[in-house]
Design brief:
By secondary structure, the protein is of the alpha/beta class. The chain has one domain: Spore Coat Polysaccharide Biosynthesis Protein SpsA, Chain A. About 40% of the residues lie in helices and about 15% in strands. The chain has a seven-stranded mixed sheet with strand order 3-2-1-4-7-5-8, sandwiched between helices. Strands 6-9 form a two-stranded parallel sheet. Strand 1, helix 1 and strand 2 form a beta-alpha-beta unit. Helix 5 runs parallel beside helix 8 and helix 7 packs parallel to helix 8. The longest helix has 19 residues. It is globular and about 50 Å long. It starts with a strand and ends with a helix.
Length: about 240
């Protein structure tokens, strides 16, 4: 059985979902794909079902009843991947902001290197972001600076959503305790990994903003991240993380 699964959450990604699936499944390294769809009104899930006949045994779909947030979608996918015995479990966006060609770099960092969590990092070698407005770049960059100051994690891209976990990390983390949904979810997963003394490695990538579909960013996601980091640090200090 293949040991690598790429989890891609979707909500109204009909314009991107077929292309991203084909791009991932055409990589030299043999990956499987799990789409976790939140009952998209644009029928993203129906497109995935059609593609499953072409990619039988490599493309899987979990169709949730409603839009419940990025964090819960990934937790759903993590539990599915662990139950199905995958060793390397990836997070990836559907909109090509993460280049499928970089998946193997993350895999190599975990399989051949010593990483337990490999992060596709926009900022470890400078600022490698294409087509983002300056205010968005600054928000993302200084969010990671803020996270380093509060948590002590020496990670340049704490909000990155392009990562590879070894299964041992997800087995150790209590996934039922994960509550955040947006940027804060990505920070929380890294902080829990860090708190369990797993090895975290940043792999430089180039991030390109989506050209199709709409961003899911909102003010509530930003607020959650700002206050969520403080909450995580306090829980760690009182041994309740």
């Amino acid at each position: 059985m293949n040991n690598c699964i790429v989890i891609i959450p979707t909500y109204n990604e009909i314009e991107n979902v077929e292309s991203i699936i084909r791009a991932v499944l055409s990589q030299h390294k043999h990956f499987h794909v799990l789409i976790v769809d939140d009952n998209s009104p644009d029928h993203t899930a129906d497109k995935v079902r059609l593609l499953q006949t072409e990619f039988e045994g490599r493309l899987f779909l979990e169709n949730r009843k409603e839009k419940s947030g990025l964090g819960t979608a990934y937790v759903h996918g993590f539990k599915w991947a662990l139950a199905n015995n995958y060793e390397f479990i990836f997070e990836m966006d559907a909109d090509f902001s993460h280049n499928p060609n970089d998946l193997e770099k993350l895999y190599n960092a975990c399989h051949f290197g010593d990483a337990d969590l490999a992060i596709g990092s926009r900022y470890v070698t400078g600022v490698n972001v294409v087509n983002w407005p300056l205010n968005r770049v600054l928000l993302s960059y200084f969010a990671s600076v803020y996270v380093r100051m509060i948590t002590g994690m020496q990670i340049h891209d704490a909000t990155a959503g392009f990562v590879c976990y070894k299964r041992e990390v997800l087995e150790k983390i209590n996934l039922d305790k994960i509550k955040f949904v947006g940027y804060a979810f990505q920070i929380e997963m890294k902080y829990r990994t860090f708190s369990h003394n797993f090895k975290i490695t940043e792999v430089p990538i180039i991030f390109t903003d989506r050209t199709k579909g709409q961003s899911k960013m909102s003010n509530s996601i930003i607020v959650e991240a700002v206050f969520g980091v403080i909450s995580l640090r306090l829980k760690k200090l009182i041994n309740r993380l």
